[in-house]
Design a protein that fits this description.
The chain is mainly alpha-helical. The protein is 85% helix and 0% strand.
Length: 155
């Protein structure tokens, strides 16, 4: 009787291991099939960490000042650290959209990514340039996303 329980226990343990290994395999396969997402999320984390480190070391204000002078956009110099992170994340996600649209093997729905990018940009810029300008830009971004999806979906 004890031998039967041990055998059943061993069988259940083997099944759990097989399920776990198949889940791990599916994550690995997904990473190989769609490396763009993995790369973009890694870049986002590295970017956010670098901005926070620059802020903690006191380099962020000088860096933003140089960017503001180069682009002739003085409000950039006064951006808080989280606005810088959100704006950068929005631009990084827009780069992902461009990559996905340019490379057919990685092309799939980008509407959600565009909306997320626009929201991140809007939240990052909202207090600096005013919601009366940012809100229409959100609507334009969502409209462009729908338009792109319609144009690319017909191909």
């Amino acid at each position: 009787m004890a031998d039967q329980r041990d055998e059943k226990f061993d069988e259940k343990e083997m099944e759990k291991r097989e399920e776990k290994s198949s889940e791990e395999k599916s994550w690995e396969e997904k990473g190989r099939r769609d490396p763009v997402s993995a790369i973009i999320w890694a870049i986002l984390l590295i970017y956010a960490g670098a901005i926070l480190l620059m802020n903690n070391l006191g380099y962020l204000d000088a860096w933003l000042g140089r960017i503001a002078a180069a682009l002739n956009l003085p409000f950039i110099a006064d951006l808080p650290v989280w606005s810088v992170i959100l704006i950068g994340a929005g631009f990084i996600l827009l780069v992902e959209v461009i990559i996905r649209l340019a490379l057919p093997e990685y092309r799939h729905g980008v509407g959600g990514t565009v909306v997320l990018a626009v929201i991140l940009l809007a939240v990052g810029l909202g207090n600096q340039i005013g919601w009366n300008l940012v809100l229409p830009l959100i609507l334009i971004g969502v409209g462009l996303s729908i338009l792109l999806r319609g144009m690319i979906g017909r191909r």
